[in-house]
Amino acid sequence: MTLVTVLSVAAGSAFAGDWYALGSFGQSKVDGNAASEVNAELIDAGVTGLSSSFDDKDTSYKLQLGYSFTPNFAVEGGYIDLGKFQYSAAFTGPAVGSAVAEVKAAGINLGAVASYPMNDQFEIFGKLGIINAKVEASVAASDSGVTISENVSATKTKSYLGVGAAYNFNEQLGLHLAWERFNKLGDKDKTGESDVDLVSLGLKYNF
User: Fold this and answer.
1) pTM score of the predicted model
2) Angle, CA of 155, 160 and 165, to the nearest 5°
3) Which end is more exposed in the chain, N or C (fewer Cβ atoms within 10 Å of the end residue's Cβ)?
4) How far apart are the C-alpha atoms of 206 and 184, rounded to whole Å?
5) pLDDT digit of tens for each residue in the chain (207 aa)?
6) How far apart are CA 198 and CA 205, in angstroms?
7) In the chain, where does DSSP find H-type helix?
8) Burial of 139 by CB count in 10 Å (0-12 exposed, 13-18 middle, 19+ buried)?
């Protein structure tokens, strides 16, 4: 066996399984204070007889590609879609009218993952990273037969953190459960800022 062959085998063994892919689906939930803030703004503007509802949950997904430097530390990044959230309201004064708003968020992330293997199959982990998230908001309001609509968006880099656990079926495939919080997504002056929580379940494949 030549020296080149020995080095190739050694390098292949050293890097086997370092790269991984993770795909997850879950449910996202936006900070409940968002609807209260909108209600307060409408009341401050003189709206009376206000009733509103807020759908603060949606289905979300994420696709990640990662690299494990050691069994305890990895870096991963990819795309996260946090879904959309809808607000609707009706009011009676100063004239009968209604308002509907929809906000959606998605972006590209990069984060560090610290893991602690409990045994060969079970591990716990923590995450800390950043997401370059685009938040899009659309609003339509009608009053006395007149409808006004507006669309705004903002792309900002914000932080996120998370914790979770994994069950490894074998060296290549594992089941991952995670909770992550994305902090103050959006722009305060354009779309407003809100925290979004994501609970997801997915599969991790080690190459």
Assistant:
1) 0.84
2) 140
3) N
4) 32
5) 554 454 344 444 444 459 999 999 999 999 867 777 778 777 887 888 888 888 999 999 999 999 999 999 999 999 999 999 998 888 888 888 888 889 999 999 999 999 999 998 999 999 999 999 999 998 888 876 677 888 999 999 999 999 999 999 999 999 999 999 999 999 988 888 999 999 999 999 999
6) 21
7) 3-15, 33-44
8) middle
Q: Closest by alpha carbon to 20, among 63, 51, 60?
A: 63
Beta strand extents in the chain (DSSP E only): 19-30, 51-55, 57-70, 73-91, 97-117, 122-143, 146-168, 173-187, 192-206
CB–CB of 131/158 below 8 Å?
Answer: yes
**Dist CA 112 CA 19 (whole Å):** 14
> 98, 101, 100: which is closest to 143 by C-alpha?
98
Distance CA 103, CA 194 (A): 11
Q: Residue 65, Cβ neighbours under 10 Å: how many? A: 14
Peptide linkage before 71 cis (omega within 30 of 0): no
C-alpha distances in angstroms, 164 versus 23, 42, 180? 15, 39, 9
